[in-house]
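Onboarding guide, step 5: your first structure request.
Type a short instruction followed by the sequence, for example:

Predict the 3D structure of this protein.
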Amino acid sequence: MRLILLGAPGAGKGTVAKLLTSVDGSVQISTGDILRAAVKAGTELGKKAEAAMKAGELVSDDLIMGIMGERLLEDDCKAGFLLDGFPRTIPQAEALKVLLTKLNIELDAAVNLDVPRDVILDRLTTRRTCVDCGAIYNVKSSPCKVEGVCDVDGCGGNVVQRDDETEEAISKRLDVFNEQTAPLVGFYKGEDMLLDINATSSDAVVDAIKAKVGI
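The system replies with structure tokens like these:
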């Protein structure tokens, strides 16, 4: 399957993407992942991205699209791909449309995970992260065995609430999302590609997507 996953921070895009990768071998791709991979590989575009990040600048859309183009041509994308949280803006969506046409790749759908704001706030304010290995916990649904200590074998790092996951910080992130990224729903609806899913269960979302793409 070839999908774009849309939704606010905490809507469950990453969780759904991981579940979908086990369905048909599609690979999960996020902007952060492709930037890190390009930098690590030392490609020409990766070097330019690294220079921008070291200077504290945003990586330009042109550069991101160039790296995305390289990524979509890699062998693991032949089975399908899931764009997790990309595109983020209308200009990126328009550029992605041009890129996919150039690569002769057709998307199955743009999936919008429509989750109520209060559910997102509850999910993210109760989320905790290991500062060493990055493991994710939730004080309600999946707490550490020992409070504040990572369960991962050989880690034992401190598990904390990230600065950007306080209620105030999350509210600001959601406001930015609504201003910059939410208009993508209208864009893909206009392209007749939108699958709008109003569900808080990841399994229900996956079932709806499988039904849409005929799996």
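Each response can be followed by summary notes, for example: The CA atoms of residues 51 and 57 lie 9 Å apart.
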